[in-house]
Amino acid sequence: MSLRSALGGPHIGYATSDDLIHWKEEQALPIMKDIPNTVNSWAPEFTYDPVQEHFLVYWASSTGKDLSNSKHYCARTKDWTSFTDAELYFDPGFQTIDASLAPYEGKYYMAVKDESHVYEPLKYPHPPMNFLAVSDQLEGPYERIPGVQTPDYTEGPEFLWIENEKKWLLYYDYWAYGKFGVMESSDMVQWSDELEEDKIRFPYRARHATMFSVTEQELLRLLDKYALLAQYRTPTYSPVRVAAEESEGFFHDGFAMRSIAMHIRPNSITGTQVLFDEGDSMNGLALRIREGRLEAAVCSNGHRFQVSGELLQLKLMQWNHTAMTYDEGRKLSLYVNGLLAGEGSAPFALVRAHDCSGGYGGRFGTDAFGDQGNKAAFDGGIKNVQIYSVPLHMEDIRAMTASQ
Fold this sequence. Notes:
By secondary structure, the chain is mainly beta. It contains 3 helices and 26 strands. A hairpin with a 7-residue loop joins β10 and β11. It is elongated and about 75 Å long. The two termini are about 30 Å apart.
């Protein structure tokens, strides 16, 4: 289920999906239609009330001539068709937008943006930021938790519970700087400083994200829909060139994140056998078997970083799953049949654009290892080659291995 802000007026958008890929029942809900002079209906969210067995929908609206008096309103629904009348939900006495709720240990916590400075800078000189409030009931009233706030010039807060670590994450949007920040807590009261940027990553230009958990199989479907650049299912027993010498395209554009996964059926694992070849020794990525070891190389502006795995435990004359992931210089990782075979951190992040031909099952020029002169063809079969625009995690690769 998805709710979306309207640019103006009393409506919010509504749609449902069973898989986060196909959406239906799109409609505009006139949720503020009975409140006169509604200017906007922003950042709608909902929380299920297990006691009353209904959904509480809440959002920020300003009434009057402009956006200068935003307050939070709410309505209730059991079927997303009929709603109770909109009523005032949260008004701390100054302008607020972007509320998000999370239940924890019998209480409800609200993260919300203090926007008072935007329209009354002399009265409220502190920059906009998010603060936290708490209530014993979903309906409120909410009281501010002293001393807890996100950094200046942030908005769009969202909670996420990490079950296996027993902690909360609070995400927020630096809207003027095009990035996100994250804080963490084990009790919703004591919060860490902002996590270092090298510990978090968000999609480029993402704004006001909503966080929720999905199963591994749901994630794999989403990856295949939104991050799979190319897939070659047909088995082959000879090198396959999938990109000619071009100046642009998914096999030629610069990248900082990449995953290559494939099934291989080796007849032998001796000598040098190239499994994947993109780019060249200046900028590129390559995967090979060399004397019984799986190896990966990544090059950026002539600088090479290489990872070698332990002696392989590949099953000869049987299909094995292999994968390589590159994660912005943080890690270059190798996997065999769902197990980590080797990894290391490159001293660079960006692999620049490359115009060489490339493909899988052999070498197509000078590869990222710096080798050239012959195809170094793989001695065996390759099928179901998948190229992703994101670095898969070990859990993803294990699930992928188990499902294929």
